[in-house]
Write a structure and sequence with these properties.
Elements lengths: L2 H25 L12 H28 L8 H26 L18 H28 L4
Helix pairs in contact: 1-2, 3-4
Length: about 150
């Protein structure tokens, strides 16, 4: 199994666990003399088994991510952290530009006028640069995921 396939399986397990939880919660209470549509104890056992398999899969993924190097000599784990930090920086700058672009709706001329104190063009340039770095790093990570065996 390739690392990318394991990541897809991890996502599938997580969705199944969420679904099982919803089904358990729907079936834990019934009116007197009624039976649940599904036995919550069976669903709980199924969820616990799936959680155990998910944990084992995550451990394998993490182990592999800590061992495999990208062309830039960083592990996949290090690259994932770097990618996440690039996205956080980009999201911060995007929120800042969004706030700076909001229109001030003054009712009268006597109200305080607000001025933007950052360069919109410089901030947008930084956003574009971060976006490009993110895409390039994400492409490297995705590429290695599809060529690396899990074990």
């Amino acid at each position: 199994m390739k690392l990318a396939e394991a990541l897809l399986q991890r996502s599938e397990y997580q969705k199944k666990i969420e679904n099982l939880q919803s089904r358990i919660l729907v079936n834990i209470k019934v009116q007197d003399n009624d039976k649940p549509l599904e036995d919550p104890n069976v669903l709980i056992k199924e969820a616990f088994d799936l959680i155990t398999r998910l944990g084992a899969l995550i451990n394998k993924i993490n182990s592999r991510n800590n061992a495999v190097l990208l062309p830039n000599e960083k592990t996949i784990s290090e690259a994932i952290v770097e990618r996440d930090m690039l996205m956080k920086q980009r999201n911060l700058l995007t929120a800042i530009t969004g706030k700076a672009q909001e229109k001030d709706h003054r009712l009268t001329h006597a109200e305080v006028k607000m001025n933007v104190v950052i360069s919109q063009s410089e901030t947008q340039r930084q956003i574009d640069e971060l976006s490009q770095k993110f895409r390039e790093l994400d492409t490297q990570i995705q590429g290695i995921n599809w060529t690396t065996d899990l074990e």
